[in-house]
Design goal:
about 525 residues, D-Maltodextrin-Binding Protein, domain 2, 2 domains, five-stranded mixed β-sheet, about 40% helix
Length: about 525
């Protein structure tokens, strides 16, 4: 008996059951841990479906995959690898690497011309360094139903120049999360009005965000006998703090009236990281520390997730994880939260006129921050099997369940994911929660003034420099201007080392996304 036939014979034992000959039958995931909580999902007909992949025979072949450590993206990589093996007879070897080492473990084989892996899972902002080593997504896979349903933002994220070289498996963005029960509480509204003279409302600007956060810090506004706090933010230098800071900067420095670069002036490649818009955002970030929980000045992403998702903080902003945790079935704040766009700014720096532009309606550019992506290497001799694995990984049945498990790191990236009924019917979210969530996330696709990640060669050096400078200012070692002046000088050195034209050519792709879309 071949490996394919042997494994296929055991599919029922593995609980991947599809009614014989039936298209669109339910896939039963009973033996797969958390999947059992959510039951079955419909196997949508098409090239990526269980039924279609079951017709493949990859017996005797091995697919080599590198992915992030378990659980975030690493766990679904393993899960779908086991299913792919059972259906096709292939052997799928998955290597898991911690985040801090993942970049080097991917890049070194490319630099030494080794064909170490067929499939990569990694942060999408590394595309500036990796694109030359990646196989373009074949036309046939662009036509499958799941790929055609990917929103424009995440098709953009997957594209370098005019070629899609990353295979979308996730969608990420930063947005505001807040305790709707507190904002809607008449007693809290009256208390805020009495003590501040202002109405309690969801913050429309970062100034309002900081003010509300400070008011709600250090006292028991939740009524559980514990002190609570206004804001949980990612502030740890080596744990994605640069992304949290960019969320604040976007409002002050991504001017809809100015084209040609947010991080740099595309024409001159002069770093913009120390212009008055960036400096103002850092000053506000420093000020926000007054509303942090104990230890909040050194929160990593996990701390932010626990603080907001566990009910300690009134507000937060970053990826979806904290919101999903708040909405878990055993959460004390389930259906007491809501989503909104990131706060904005009423005055935005104009680098062309060297002055502040005033906006009656706050400027609120969405930040399409990096998320997990996948790709097939050019050097792979198994590209057929590799692309089949990725289309299977992200098929509609698998994605429907992956979205519901917070630690998997798979967040909405298809149009169908932005239907409130999905979250109401599948997860029991109250309509208001589901509506604010999908409206906030889907609305980012409509903006013509967006911020994307840097996506250039050397991006890790640029972001490390930025994080170090911001950390110095947050710790009081330098003021905001001094810290960012230092970052700007380092960025100029990095550009000189890599090559101005090489960075400019890559950055032009980012500017095209931010200023024009596709």
């Amino acid at each position: 008996m071949t490996r394919k036939n042997f494994l296929h014979a055991s599919i029922c034992a593995l609980a991947i059951t599809i009614a014989s000959g039936a298209q669109g039958a339910d896939v039963n995931y009973d033996q797969y841990g958390d999947y059992a909580k959510y039951g079955a999902a419909a196997d949508v007909p098409g090239a990526c479906s269980y039924q279609a992949i079951d017709q493949k025979d990859y017996s005797g072949r091995t697919l080599k995959v590198i992915s992030h450590a378990v659980p975030v993206i690493g766990e679904p990589t393993d899960l779908h690898a086991r299913q792919f093996e059972a259906l096709t007879g292939a052997k799928v070897d998955v290597v898991h690497i911690p985040f801090g080492d993942l970049y080097q473990r991917i890049m070194i084989p490319f630099q030494t011309q080794q064909a170490a892996y067929d499939v990569l899972f990694y942060p999408s902002l590394w595309i500036g360094d990796l694109h030359g080593f990646l196989a373009p997504v074949p036309a046939a896979y662009k036509e499958v139903s799941g790929m055609k349903d990917v929103t424009q933002n995440y098709k953009d994220v997957a594209t370098w120049g005019e070629e899609m070289v990353q295979y979308p498996v996730d969608g990420d963005r930063h947005y505001l999360k807040y305790r709707s029960d507190i904002f809607d509480d008449p007693d809290m509204q009256a208390k805020y009005k009495t003590e501040t003279g202002k109405d309690l409302k969801v913050p429309a600007t970062w100034e309002e965000y900081n003010a509300v956060a400070k008011f709600f810090s250090g006292w028991d506004w939740a009524g559980d006998g514990q002190p609570h706090f206004g804001s949980a933010e990612v502030t740890k230098r080596d744990d994605l703090m640069f992304s949290a800071f960019i969320s604040r900067v976007a409002a002050y420095a991504k001017n809809p009236n100015v084209k040609g670069g947010f991080f740099f002036d595309l024409e001159t490649m002069e770093p913009q990281v120390n212009n008055p818009g960036w400096v103002k955002a850092l000053e506000m970030f420093i000020d926000a520390q007054k509303a942090f929980p104990p230890g909040g000045a050194n929160f990593g992403l996990g701390d932010e997730i626990f603080s907001f998702g566990g009910g300690q903080a009134l507000m937060s902003y970053s990826w979806d994880d904290a919101f999903i945790q708040a909405q878990e079935k055993d959460s004390p704040i389930r259906n007491k939260v809501a989503a909104a766009p990131l706060p904005g700014a009423s005055e935005v720096w104009n680098r062309t006129t060297k002055s502040w532009d005033k906006f009656e309606t706050p400027n609120t550019p969405p930040y399409i921050t990096w998320g997990w992506t996948s790709a097939v290497t050019k050097a792979s001799k198994n590209q057929d099997m590799a692309f089949d694995y990725l289309c299977f990984f992200s098929n509609e049945a698998n994605t429907t369940l992956d979205l519901q498990i917070g630690r998997f790191g798979v967040n909405p990236y298809r149009t169908t994911h932005f239907d409130p009924k999905f979250w109401q019917d599948k997860l029991g979210w109250e309509p208001k929660v589901a509506e604010t969530y999908v409206k906030t996330l889907s609305g980012m696709d409509d903006s013509t003034n967006r911020v994307f990640d840097l996506r250039v060669p050397g991006v890790n050096q640029f972001m490390s420099s930025l994080a170090n400078g911001v950390a110095e200012a947050m710790a009081g070692q330098k003021n905001a201007q001094e810290a960012l002046d230092g970052v700007a000088a380092q960025w100029s050195e990095i550009i000189d080392k890599i090559g101005t034209e090489k960075v400019r050519d890559a950055y032009a792709n980012v500017v095209a996304l931010e200023d024009h879309g596709r």
